[in-house]
Specification:
Layout: H1 2-10, H2 23-30, H3 32-42, E1 49-50, H4 51-58, H5 62-69, E2 78-81, E3 84-87, H6 90-100
Antiparallel strand pairs: 1-3, 2-3
Length: about 100
C-alpha cells in the first residue's frame, strides 16, 4: 500500500486544473454577432439555409436571434425569397438573388 501511495505522490501533475473560463469561452456563448459571423463562414460554406435552419445550426435561441440577425452587417448574407428568409455566404447569395430576379441597390 505504501509503494502505491509513494508512486502517486511522486508523479507530477500533468496539468493544473483550470480556474475560471477565458474571454473566448465567454464570447462563444454570449457574443451572438460573433456566432453568426462564424456560422456564415463555416456552416454556410457552399450551402444555403432557411433562417430557422441557420439559427438552429448556430445554436442561438430564437428570443436572441432576430435582434442580431437583422443587423445590416448581414445584408449580403440574408435575403427574403417567397416569404422566407434565406442565408448563404455573400457570393452564393448574390447568385441566388440574380436567379430569383431580386434587384439590390
Amino acid at each position: 500500500m505504501n509503494a502505491n501511495r509513494k508512486d502517486s505522490m511522486s508523479s507530477k501533475p500533468t496539468e493544473e486544473k483550470s480556474r475560471g473560463k477565458s474571454m473566448d469561452q465567454f464570447r462563444s456563448v454570449f457574443d451572438i454577432k460573433l456566432r453568426i459571423c462564424k456560422g456564415v463562414s463555416t456552416i454556410l460554406r457552399g450551402v444555403y439555409m432557411t433562417d430557422q435552419e441557420f439559427r438552429e445550426a448556430c445554436g442561438i435561441a430564437s428570443n436572441e436571434w432576430r435582434r442580431y440577425a437583422d443587423d445590416s452587417e448581414f445584408d449580403a448574407c440574408r435575403c427574403r425569397l417567397r416569404g422566407q428568409i434565406m442565408w448563404a455566404q455573400p457570393k452564393m447569395m448574390k447568385e441566388m438573388r440574380e436567379i430569383a430576379g431580386i434587384v439590390t441597390a
